[in-house]
């Protein structure tokens, strides 16, 4: 296990996978990490077709640092740095990283899942397994985006947060497979 500077996990994973190509390598990145400070890193790792897997945990906020707005924050969602709610006029629209990365030829598998109920958790498990299998086949970059709650910074109970994720987040971040080169080749 290696720790990387915020946003730089793709660069560290690139080095590890290139030096140790027989290892299954994965990164774990939040949305502030992957969709803000590390946006260039992840786009170029996908473009290079780096053969590691990214687990992208999207909770629509900078959680660890206390709830600042992230590029993934929803329109109208309140954050410490968007106290009146995110507006398109001031902050732009939520950044859909799975859709974006799915346009890149070096990306082999991109799927968005969530973990709000057992059926979703089982699906998330299958998605991560599939990404690892595609990594082992050496087909390119793989990423599983996991929509996650952040009750503390959303100002909700854990149960309320599960409901908000399903009602507000999934319409903006639909679940599903956005790129699968194994299907295209078939
Ligand atoms: C280079 C660098 N810049 C800023 C920080 C401060 N920092 C730590 S965690 C974090 C944001 C985390 O947000 P996210 O990636 O969405 O993860 P979450 O906590 O929501 O899971 C920031 C800005 C840092 N640790 N290193
Ligand atoms: Mg986050």
Describe the protein's architecture and organization.
There is one protein chain. The protein is of the alpha/beta class and 186 residues long. It has one domain (9-185): 3-Layer(aba) Sandwich (Rossmann fold), CATH 3.40.50. It contains nine helices and five strands. It has helices at residues 9-19, 31-37, 39-47, 88-91, 97-101, 118-136, 151-154, 158-172, 181-185, and strands at residues 26-30, 53-58, 107-114, 141-147, 176-180. The protein has a five-stranded mixed β-sheet, sandwiched between helices. Helix 6 links the parallel strand 3 and strand 4 (141-147). The radius of gyration is 16 Å and the shape is globular. It starts with 8 loop residues before the first helix and ends with a helix. Bound molecules: thiamine diphosphate and magnesium ion. Thiamine diphosphate (TPP) is lined by residues 5-6, 30-33, 37, 57, 59, 61-65, 70.
């Amino acid at each position: 296990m290696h720790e990387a500077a915020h946003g730089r996990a793709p660069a560290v994973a690139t080095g590890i996978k290139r030096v140790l190509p027989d290892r299954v390598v994965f990164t774990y990145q939040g949305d502030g990490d992957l969709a803000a400070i590390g946006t260039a890193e992840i786009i170029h790792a996908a473009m290079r077709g780096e053969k590691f897997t990214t687990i992208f945990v999207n909770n629509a906020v900078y959680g660890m640092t206390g709830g600042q707005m992230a590029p993934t924050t929803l329109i109208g969602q309140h954050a410490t740095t968007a106290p009146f709610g995110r507006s398109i006029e001031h902050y732009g629209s939520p950044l859909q990283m799975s859709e974006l990365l799915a346009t890149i030829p070096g990306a082999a598998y991109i799927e968005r899942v969530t973990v709000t109920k057992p059926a979703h958790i089982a699906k998330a498990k299958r998605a991560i397994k599939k990404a690892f299998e595609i990594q082992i086949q050496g087909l390119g970059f793989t990423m599983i985006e996991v929509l996650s709650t952040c009750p503390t910074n959303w100002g909700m109970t854990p149960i309320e947060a599960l409901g908000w994720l399903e009602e507000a987040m999934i319409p903006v971040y639909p679940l599903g497979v956005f790129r699968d080169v194994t299907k295209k080749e078939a």
